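Much of what follows relies on a compact textual record of a protein's fold. A record is reproduced here so that you can trace the correspondence yourselves:
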Amino acid sequence: MIVVDAMILAYALVGGPEHTPAVNRLLDLDLAWAGPPLWRNELRNVLLQYIWVPETDRPGDAVTLGDAQRKMHLAETLIGERTFGVESDAVLDIAQTTGLSAYDGEYVALAQEVDVPLVTTDGAILQAVPDVAVRPDDITVLSRAREEHSKSTRSAAQ
């Protein structure tokens, strides 16, 4: 399992030139995605930006209201059952010690609580908690390394 922030979901659902290939590789790993309840509100806001922003300023594909609604339903299949609340004390502690927002602190707190990486492209999060946060490509590299290790261990055992 991994914790993903709303932008990772947005890249998976809408696309964008810079991060979508890495996020698609992340989807190919077939990992369970998780997040705090906040992901829904943040993703809704991202999708609205794709609707409202002029096409020339939009980083990805055009999105209609119907598209946004379908993408929210798809996001629920990706992460919905693995939406976990976090303790306010933990979020506030993280925000205070790292300088991150409480919004970002929710993702970090969840990743710490369930002891899995937080996958993000947010530079502030990556810098503030490098022991927790990783880029999408970092997960694909780690996953391949684990897979190779498992194969070699099975081969050696046979």
